[in-house]
Amino acid sequence: MKNLFLAAAAGLAILSVPASAQSVQGLGILALDPVDEGNTVLTLNGEGEVRRAPDLATFSAGVTTVGASAEEALRQNARTMQSLIAAVKRRGIADKDIQTSDISIRPIMSNDRGEEYLAIESYNAVEAAVMEVEAAAMEMPVGPRKKEPPKIVGYRVTNALTLRQRKLGDFGETIDALVGAGANTVDGPNFMIENSRDAENEARTKAIADARSRAELYAAAAGMRVVRIIMIDEGRTSGLTSRAPRNQFGFYQAMAEDYDSPTSVSPGELNISSRVGLMFELAPE
């Protein structure tokens, strides 16, 4: 005979003790399909992980130019960007893997006293480095905005591409080609697997096996046996993470003038992981 009292008691417990969404869902299942009298319920998580070499990397590359007018800065930028796109195409990157990700035109300001300076509008590492180079080129100090009304003394144009590199063995040479074509900002890469479904399914299978193994362990320790799986919750599945150090091709590295050897890039491995919640019915031996 099914133990309806157990389900009712569990329902009361959920009112007095905070529970996860999985617990609430599980208790609802028990109300419809309660365990046999004398049996108990075990809820735990299973984890599975597989490792695969990446087959794709995304990164960004761009050009920042400065001119007396917005038109001049934009024209210079456009010429260099055309060289960048031609360079990556020569490296075998297809049109579908080249995407414009950012275009910006910003003024360079000075105050009324004639003291020119570069207005700091962003404090991330790449922006700060760009501003320092611009200031040095125009013999301007870098500083915060003054209280006096500013005036425009020049323009800065930034144009960036997001690129997908499929031949990872050629990645370093692609970076070198971009810098040689005039790129002064390069950032990345983010390694990934283009089609990760098989690896994800393997991780899910391992997660279920892990949960089942631990359920058997708990049941044996308690003098019980696993009767069945009552519920599986895939809402705990996680995705891909990289074991390789994230490679950064920052502003200063991209501005280097001499290259004694090609840029080194190590793809490493990716972790594909799954974390699944399961609910088991246990019966006495």
Structure, described:
The protein has 285 residues and is of the alpha+beta class. The protein folds into 3 domains: 1-37, no CATH class; 39-53 and 195-246 and 268-285, 2-Layer Sandwich (Translation Initiation Factor IF3); 56-192, 2-Layer Sandwich (Alpha-Beta Plaits). Helix content is 34%, strand content 33%. The strands form 3 sheets. Strands 1, 8, 9 and 10 form a 4-stranded antiparallel β-sheet that branches. Strand 4, helix 4 and strand 5 (142-143) form a beta-alpha-beta unit. Helix 1 packs antiparallel against helix 2. It is elongated and about 85 Å long. Residues 1-22, 112-116 and 240-259 have low confidence and may be disordered.
Can you lay out the helices and strands and say which pair or pack?
Elements: H1 4-16, H2 21-32, E1 40-52, E2 56-67, H3 70-90, E3 98-110, E4 118-119, H4 125-137, E5 142-143, E6 151-165, H5 171-180, E7 185-192, H6 197-221, E8 224-233, E9 240-242, H7 251-254, E10 270-284
Parallel strand pairs: 4-5
Antiparallel strand pairs: 1-10, 2-6, 2-7, 3-6, 8-10, 9-10
Helix pairs in contact: 1-2
What are the salient characteristics of this protein?
Alpha-Beta Plaits; single chain; disordered N terminus; alpha+beta; Translation Initiation Factor IF3; 4-stranded antiparallel sheet; 10 strands; 285 residues; 33% strand
